[in-house]
Amino acid sequence: MNIVPISESAVVCSLPPPASIQQQRQLWAFARQLQSEQDIVEVVLGMNNLTVFTDFFVDFKPLVQRLEQLWAELKVSDFQGRHIEIPVIYGGERGQDLSDVAKFHQTTPERIIQMHSEPIYTVYMIGFQAGFPYLGGLPENLHTPRRASPRTVVPSGSVGIGGRKRGFILFLRQVGGS
């Protein structure tokens, strides 16, 4: 784990890429453990990292040593999250790029829908805007490059595939420009 200060009262603890469900589970367990630590005010989970906010007057070197020790002693439990089924309507206003994605993958929109709806996705983190889940579990054969020109408005309820390396973004709210 790499620990770097980002302010007088915060450090980022990062794991080496690529992000994986195993590493994310370790971070979830670490975040739960840190919640009860003295001098730690808040823990914010990210993708393959977490940010630890401390009391303003905590010395960096002892903090890093303590975090490294806690990480080395970490016991990852079989934490089970909630299973939430999200109904998806493919195509139309909320699926403007479905035919483009099918064309990119040299298949049909129906096959894209089938491949997308089969896996169980895991929320790695919440970010970008309130309630925006970054999801892991997208099959590699669905990784799709981002659009050359992003849309300024994406209708609420749209599903988005965000690239080859991290193709696991689900839009549940309106996003984009003004």
UniProtKB/TrEMBL annotation:
Q: Which Pfam families match?
A: CT_C_D
Is Lipid biosynthesis included in the keywords of this UniProt record? no
Supply one GO molecular-function term.
Answer: hydrolase activity
Under what name is this protein listed?
A: Carboxyltransferase domain-containing protein
Is Nucleotide-binding tagged as a keyword? yes
Q: What keywords were assigned to this record?
A: ATP-binding, Hydrolase, Nucleotide-binding
Q: Please list the residue ranges annotated as the Carboxyltransferase domain.
A: 1-171
